[in-house]
Design a protein that fits this description.
Blueprint lengths: L2 E10 L5 E2 H8 L5 H8 L3 E2 L11 H16 L6 E7 L10 H10 L6 E5 L5 H15 L5 E8 L10 H6 L3 E10 L4 E8 L7 E3 L10 H6 L4 E3 L7 H17 L6 E4 L4 H11 L10 H4 L6 H11 L8 E8 L3 E8 L1
Helix pairs in contact: 3-4, 8-9
């Protein structure tokens, strides 16, 4: 079986960045700026609707994807697989990946397009799916995997928790089929008994969106239970070690984690016995961008010279549900 390599990278975040002081002014919320900046590491973020920008999920995905295609230098019509990883799609149906294919290729093609919805692990899961599909099919040469996040569209007015954490953004990998083994392993964890912590519960078949629910404020992003504060500290090191064992590597050159809490990421690096220089955090620039945060952090790590060709990379993303996705690959 062949393998895949990353040929192009692209990211997108809408509008001018919003710092914590301006966020208070634009939303009318009160937040603990010191805690958000020092513990979580979040200083600025991009939120389209707070800037009056009429862009949504498919727009974010398209702009990040076009940047990745340009970086790869290929003909967009050669892309045979489009996967969008997100839990904030443009519509419930059709898939955002189908819309993206139409925008990129301007009509019908023999491409395959679908979404992967695994909460904030959507991109890492989509990357694993794409890598295996691309490696296993002779008729596919290029795949476009895009992670996007538009959770602020679901944040209710006055929700200090939602606005202080979640932000808009997208990141894309353009993958190419290759003979060398570069994608080493994928690893996932699921625990559906944890579905009722945080999510967007209204608008599906179980709980339709109604005027009454809107008036009660029971819609959009809802935090039903507090997430365990030490969950990622305990879980991520185990996930990393299991994934590297599966990949047949003892260590990596760089580690990327869900960009939800900078202090947790550094603590996990200490547990792994790895220097802080071997990870990258971008929540100071983008806030928390869910399924987009791994490709966005990777993009900056490459641009800043922290990741080089030939490096072994481990990515870990976890989100509501519980869903966890991990990738081990050679850049």
């Amino acid at each position: 079986m062949s393998s895949v390599s990353i040929k192009g990278l692209g990211i997108y975040a809408p509008g001018k960045a919003i710092d914590n002081r301006e966020l208070k002014m634009l939303t009318g919320i009160e937040l603990d700026s010191e805690k958000i900046e020092k513990k979580l590491g979040m200083v600025k973020r991009h939120i389209a609707h707070l800037r009056g920008i009429e862009e949504t999920s498919a727009d974010f995905a398209e702009k990040a994807a076009l940047n990745a295609i340009e970086d790869a230098g290929i003909d967009r019509k050669e892309i045979g697989l489009f996967i969008v990883g997100t839990d904030t799609p443009e519509y419930i149906s059709p898939a955002t990946a189908v819309l993206l294919q139409g925008r990129i290729q301007k009509g019908a093609s023999t491409s395959c397009a679908f979404d992967v919805a695994a909460s904030c692990a959507s991109f890492t899961t989509a990357l694993d799916v794409a890598a295996n599909m691309l490696a296993g099919r002779d008729d596919l040469q290029y795949a476009l995997v895009t992670g996007l996040y538009n959770m602020p569209a679901f944040v209710r007015p006055g929700d200090a928790f939602g606005y202080s954490i979640f932000a808009d953004g997208a990141g894309a990998f353009l993958l190419e089929r290759c003979p060398e083994k570069k994608y080493l392993a994928g690893h996932q964890i699921a625990d559906g008994t944890q579905w009722d912590y945080v999510g967007v519960y209204t608008g599906g078949t179980k709980i339709p969106y109604t005027k009454e629910r809107q008036e009660r404020g029971q819609y959009g992003l809802e935090l039903l239970q507090r997430l365990p504060g030490d969950r990622n500290v305990k879980m991520w090191p185990i996930v990393v070690r299991d994934a590297m064992k599966k990949a047949g590597v003892r260590s990596a050159d760089h580690y990327l984690f869900t960009q939800i809490n900078r202090s947790v990421i550094l603590e996990v690096m200490d547990i792994l016995g790895e220097p802080h220089e071997k990870t990258t955090t971008v929540m100071d620039r983008y806030g928390y961008t869910g399924s987009a945060c791994i490709p966005m952090a990777f993009y900056h790590a490459v641009g800043e010279g922290r990741i080089k060709r030939g490096d072994v990379i481990v990515t870990v993303a976890s989100g509501a549900g519980l869903a966890v996705g991990c990738n081990v690959f050679i850049y």
